[in-house]
């Protein structure tokens, strides 16, 4: 089983969007049982809060529910528990490394580093644009899934 943790600042917009998009993507391809997928925050600001309304509404357009998801914070031990820790932007990566201390197994990446156009995913908390964020996350999740199929063939 491949264990993936999506991470953003508050765990209410981008990282839960990535969690549920990727979960939906692998389930549609009949591969849901090959993955453990979760998301968390680098900050404590939103801990215990539900997914942001904008993320919920955007995902609902595609028949994806975020029911039961509440923000949780990244813990140092998550580094040992997951195969991939995928941040949404450069600041997330810095904060992930601050929490986990080091990345000797090269598990920490930006989600869009797997795409043809590596870049940060803009935070819709500030931009208000959940459409752009959704498109970037779909691009990143598809690119990451392609990467896994190529580099972890034995599990597919």
Description:
The protein has 156 residues and is α/β, with parallel strands linked by helices. It has a single domain, classed as Rossmann fold, CATH 3.40.50. 41% of the residues lie in helices and 13% in strands. It has helices at 14-28, 53-60, 78-81, 90-100, 124-127, 130-151, and strands spanning 2-8, 35-41, 84-87, 108-110. The longest helix is centred in the C-terminal third of the chain and has 22 residues, at 130-151. It is globular and about 40 Å long. The mean pLDDT is 96.
**Count of domains:** 1
Beta strand count: 4
Strand content: 5-15%
Number of helices: 6
Order of helices and strands: EHEHHEHEHH
At CATH's second level, what is the architecture?
3-Layer(aba) Sandwich
Question: What structural class should be given to the helix and strand makeup?
Answer: alpha/beta
CATH class placement:
Alpha Beta
CATH topology: Rossmann fold
**Uncertain ranges:** none
* Strand order of the biggest β-sheet: 2-1-3-4
Spell out the CATH superfamily: Response regulator
User: What radius of gyration results from the CA coordinates?
Assistant: 14 Å
Percent of residues in helices comes to: 40-55%
Summarize the main sheet: 4 strands, parallel
The dominant shape is globular
- The end-to-end distance, rounded to whole angstroms, is 10 Å
Mean pLDDT: 96
């Amino acid at each position: 089983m491949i264990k993936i943790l999506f991470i953003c600042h508050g765990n209410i917009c981008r990282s839960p969007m990535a969690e549920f998009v990727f979960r939906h993507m692998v389930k549609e391809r009949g591969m849901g049982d090959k993955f453990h997928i979760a998301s968390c925050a680098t900050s404590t600001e939103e801990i215990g809060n539900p997914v942001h309304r904008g993320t919920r509404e955007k995902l609902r357009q595609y028949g994806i529910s975020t029911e039961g998801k509440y923000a949780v914070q990244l813990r140092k031990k998550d580094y040992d528990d997951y195969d991939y820790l995928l941040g949404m932007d450069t600041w997330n990566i810095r904060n992930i490394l601050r929490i986990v201390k080091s990345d000797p197994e090269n598990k920490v990446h930006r989600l869009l580093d797997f795409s043809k156009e590596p870049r940060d995913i803009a935070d819709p908390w500030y931009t208000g644009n959940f459409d752009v964020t959704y498109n970037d996350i779909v691009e990143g999740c598809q690119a990451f899934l392609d990467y896994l199929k190529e580099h972890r063939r034995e599990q597919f």
